[in-house]
Amino acid sequence: MRATPAKGAADPPLNWQEAVLSRVIRLSGYSAIVFVVLIFTFLVREGLPALFDVPLSDLFSVRWYPIEGYFGILPLITGSLIVTLGAMAVAVPFGIGTAMFISEIAPRWAREVLKPMVELLGGLPSVVLGFLGILMLSPYLRQALDLPTGLTALAGSLLLAGIALPTIVSIAEDALDAVPKSFREGALALGATRWQTMWGVTLPAARSGVLTAVMLGIGRAIGETMAVMMVTGNAPVLAIRLASIVAPARTMTATIAAEMGEVATGSIHYHVLFFVGMVLFLISFAVNVTASAVVFRQRTRAERVLS
Amino acid sequence: MLVLLSALLAGCQTASTGATPYSAAEYIENRGSDTIVNLALAWAERYQELHPEVRISVSGGGSGVGITALINGTVDIANASRQIKSEEAQEAESRGIQPVEFVIARDAIAVIVHPNNPVSQLTLQQISDIYSGLINNWREVGGEDRPIVRLSRETNSGTHVYFLETVLRLGDSDSDTLFSTDTLLLPSSEGIVYEVRQNPNAIGYDGLGYVPPDLKVVAVARQAGGPFVLPSVDTVNDNSYPVARDLYMYTAGQPSGTVADYLGWILSSEAQPIVADLGFVPAAAAMPAPTQGD
Q: Between the CA atoms of B118, B120, B121 and B126, what dihedral angle is there, to the nearest 10 degrees?
């Protein structure tokens, strides 16, 4: 980003192959932005009419039953949030712990087995996990926790943790691995124990990469549809109590997936589903902006310290 | 599995058309209700064996999808597990299409519970109260002291709508009874079957053809004290089982040519036994022999 504009003018004119190639590369760079803007424009165009069709007080109410004209999206938002938060509560400590183990503690041979295995786990189709969830996890949860049913937000959280874990482990491990060896050697030379080095030096030094890992994990979790739809029970209940984690929940993604197929184009229900999509987009956008803001602030401070 | 089946079908068709002298194959497009899709596929396969010159493409998507496609003129036959709505009929008429209805089979909706659940009979009113959230413990309907976990299909399913109108609202169109918000909305019949099979708290409903033998089917009565009836071919045909519905096919205008032949065959004594094989109730009893037109 910084290097390109300074050159150019002084260089001899590019031959046509290079000119074409550089255009193509530039185009594909910009296309990412164009696509995001186009997608958001489309979402807004299809979703915003919901605000005119449905009074705001109805839209932000607690009853979702679209075939009878109840369009309260609060249960869906809280459902997505509780499932995602539950998933993060499991996946973040486990993910970072695994990444630290692979990068800092495991012997070389174990690392060479573990990392590919974890990444393989990431390639598992979520439908397969959903099947495991519905056949094994939910009956187990019902019996172990003595719940009325195992199809709960908790089952969804655990599956999502499994889905987000490989992303978190893989990226966090890369970040930890990129911390210069001299940092660790310096800490050890100053008399820090191995644990103190890991916790006090390596992890903070890799903080921005680890944070990115967590954010991508959240993104993966909140956008996941199939596995969640299969195990959370999809009951549109407002999930704001602590006990909601062991009750059924309905996420935004599952709602869109289950209902978009048969909705009449242009109907109120259709617009409300797009509005739900818009809310989902805004939430993941907010997560990403927060993440990059935190990462950016952390980097400038590090630069200040080092300079 | 559907994709696989239709791919297989497509394979058979190309093979058979290649072998036969007919160059211009007759093509029937058939889409709609997920309840009917297995039945429609079975019919299509059999019919294509008998008439290799005809190609039939069957797909699901839901009753609404099928009828919308019929109105848009993209299918020849729409499958529906409910009757066409008045808005849909108006929409069709505004486009110059006169939908013609055929009752092709009947379907009982069975209420299912875990095999160990001691409750074996319920009245319609009790089922309505369970699903609307008035009854929350099996003890209240003569069972064990367990919470009731309500299972339902998703709201876009024709079965969901039928159950809402016939059972929850007891057929009263002015009623605005709704499913309790904590009703679990499962995306597939299989989801309901899995959960009922392993959860003694659960109650669910599904088309009789989709209920495996290891689950307990509840006998249903119209009124308290009235006869409790289990769903079966006989009880559906003599109207004693209260939760049964007709399954429909719709064509745009009176069918002619290949489509008319196909529908005539579906209603014939040759095709109706397939209905019973798949767990539905044949319509032949209600509809005497294949008549030409209406």
A: 50
Spatial contact of A198 and A172, defined as CB atoms under 8 Å apart: no
Question: Can you tell me the distance from the alpha carbon of B141 to that of B178, in angstroms, rounded to the nearest whole number?
Answer: 20
Per-residue pLDDT at A42:
93
pTM of the entire structure? Answer: 0.78
Q: Give the nearest partner residue to B181 out of A135, A235, A262, using CB atoms.
A: A235
Q: Where are the beta strands (DSSP E) in B4-98?
A: 26-32, 54-59, 77-80
Q: Which residue of B has its CA nearest to A75?
A: B181
Torsion of CA B101, B106, B112, B115, to 10 degrees: -160
- Is residue A215 within 8 A of residue A295, CB to CB? The reply is no
Low-confidence stretches of chain A (pLDDT < 70) are 1-14, 298-307
- A142/B195 touch (CB, cutoff 8 Å), yes or no: no
Q: What is the C-alpha separation between B58 and B76, in angstroms, rounded?
A: 11
Taking CB atoms and an 8 Å cutoff, what residues of chain B touch A259? 154-156
Cβ(B253)–Cβ(B259) below 8 Å: no
Q: Do B185 and A259 touch (CB under 8 A)?
A: no
In angstroms, rounded to a whole number, what is the distance separating the alpha carbons of residues A17 and A60? 56
Closest chain B residue to the Cα of A263, Cα to Cα? B156
C-alpha–C-alpha distance, residues B258 and B265, integer Å? 10
Q: Measured between alpha carbons, how far is A15 from A25 in angstroms, rounded to an integer?
A: 16
The distance of B146 to chain A (nearest Cα, Å) reads: 8
Residues of B in contact with A144 (CB under 8 A): none
ipTM: 0.79
Q: Percentage of residues in chain B with pLDDT exceeding 90?
A: 38
In this structure, the strands spanning B54-59 and B149-153 are: unpaired
Query: Is residue B273 a contact partner of residue B117, using CB atoms and an 8 Å limit?
Result: no
Token pair of A77 as six digits: 């938002």
The single residue listed with the structure tokens 């397939």 is B274
Cα four-point dihedral sign B282, B287, B289, B294: negative
Dist. CA B232–CA B217, nearest whole Å = 11
User: Which residues in chain B have their CB less than 8 angstroms from residue A228's CB?
Assistant: none
Whether residues A66 and B199 touch (CB distance < 8 A) is answered with no
- The token duo for B248 is 């429909």
The answer to whether the CB atoms of A151 and B184 lie below 8 A apart is: yes
d(CA B28, CA B251): 11
The more confidently predicted of residues B25 and B90 is: B90
Residue B255 three-state SS: coil
- Best CA proximity match to A148, nearest among B145, B68, B45, B290: B145
Q: From chain B, pick out residues whose CB is under 8 angstroms from the CB of A244.
A: none
Nearest to A149 among B179, B181, B201 (CB): B201
DSSP per residue, A235-246 = ------SGGGGG
Chain B CB contacts of A247 under 8 Å are 182
